[in-house]
Amino acid sequence: MSRDGAAALLEVRVSHKDYLSAAGRPQRALENLAFSLPAGRAGALVGPSGCGKTTLLRIIAGLDTEFSGAVTLPADGRLGMVFQEPRLLPWRSVIDNLRIAAPQASEEALAALLAGLGLEEHARHFPGELSLGLARRVALARALAIGPDLLLLDEPFVSLDDALARDLRARIAALIDEKRVTTLIVTHDLREAIELADVIFLLSPRPSHVGATLDVTTPRKLMTKDAADALEAQARREIEAMRGR
Amino acid sequence: MIRLFSLLLLLALWQGAALFADPRRLPGPVPVFEAMAHEVESGALFTNLGATLARVVASFLLAMSLGAALGYAMGRRRALDRLFDPWLVILLNLPALVVIVLAYLWAGLTEAAAIGAVALNKLPNAIVVMREGARALDHELDEMAEVFRLRPAARLRHIVLPQLSPYIAAATRSGLSLVWKIVLVVELIGRSNGVGFEINMAFQLFDVRLLLAYAIPFVLLMLGVETLLVQPFERYVSRWRRRPARGQGLA
What's the rounded mean pLDDT across residues A101-125? Predict the structure, then answer.
């Protein structure tokens, strides 16, 4: 799977994951789902809404342990997570939110991180004073502040308007290239995945498994519209094939 | 301003009523303040106020710390809640006087019995309020703390306590007024100093002046605690709530 033979940083093997529906019947969310992500790469999990993407991310983050299978991460690996809702501490200022999550980070490093995300003037503000776009950026800064071995992003652009989403996408792409942090993005938007990821895992409808893996060979900065269109067309064919099965 | 006017109006009403009443039954403000001055001079007022205040503080801290710990545990663990909820209902409905008399019978007329009895009266109320607070804790922030591996001390300080602080303030408010009323009863029954003891003396001597000379400074003291400690604490912990949103759009 890894083109350059780099060691896999993240290995996910979920043989199955069930949950109880509202009616009390067991439902299968994931089945025989497996993939691995090499160190320093950005992967994207793409699938229709309700296919269990967030469930899978919670399993990887260690928040959900009721599944059969295994998730392998480096021992003592640090996880930086950006949840769909920013989940900042509303009673602490932006800079304090970063300090609390990353007590070992230096003040200079935190200041640089905020500046890099265009947040320097908001350091003393409380999260309730920020718009959703800004709060997402703070959540991203917090995840990066701990110096993560693995960065997990859950639908980072959902409910942002186009301009804001484009802006945040460009910032994340730049950060992935600059810091070489292994990143896993969950999204329902194929185009987003093509822009950000080195490798795309297409998830099937429920019970979900990785139906196809696409390597994005063009580097992010050199991605042209034609290349992206070609990849998108290829991905759509794979998705059609999955549905037909 | 309006508060000051309201207090002056009350004082005027008192003076007016005293003009028409038997001075032994309802003395006016002037004789009461004279009696107060007399007690201040002899030093008895401060000794007794101090004794009562120390009992209020001790039993309040005991009840709040125990109540916060138990309430938190019951709010977080359903099994504990189900196990101890009936005890809580019994304790809530046990008359204060029963607890006080039992404490004195079992532990003698001691300071520990007095403070313990007052704390036990406040305890169920503190547990109920703190349990509500613990039930309302944000699960999403717990998950955030889990993923970011915050240390237990950091979780308590930055995640749990800020969410519980409105409940702590509410329990403090209702608790202080409850505790000081019960402290007076405990002193009346089984202590030889404090405001409650002096009120018992005043009752034996049918001395309404002395009674008011002790009751008024203590009410003022508790009002001072509320205005100067509890309210500023509430304002401080909720300072993040009040400001408007900033940076709409592409800031």
Answer: 91
Query: Tokens 């204060």 belong to which residue?
Result: B96
3-state secondary structure string, B191-211?
CCCCHHHHHHHHHHCCCHHHH
- Helices A107-116 & A132-145, crossing angle to 10 degrees? 140
Judge whether A202 and A210 are in contact, CB under 8 Å: yes
Q: Please, what is the angle between helix B96-107 and helix B111-135, to 10°?
A: 130
Question: Structure pTM?
Answer: 0.79
Closest-CA distance, A182 to chain B, in angstroms, reads 16
Sole residue written with tokens 């000081």: B180
Residues of B in contact with A122 (CB under 8 A): 246-247
Q: Looking at the complex, does the CB of residue B248 fall below 8 Å from at least one CB of chain A?
A: yes
Tokens at residue A190, please?
């194929």
8 Å CB contact of B250 and A163: yes
Give the torsion sign (CA, A195, A197, A199, A200): negative
Complex ipTM, two decimals?
A: 0.85
Dist CA A211 CA A243 (whole Å):
10
pLDDT in tens, B139-184: 999 999 999 999 999 999 999 999 998 899 888 888 888 898 899 9
A243 three-state secondary structure: helix
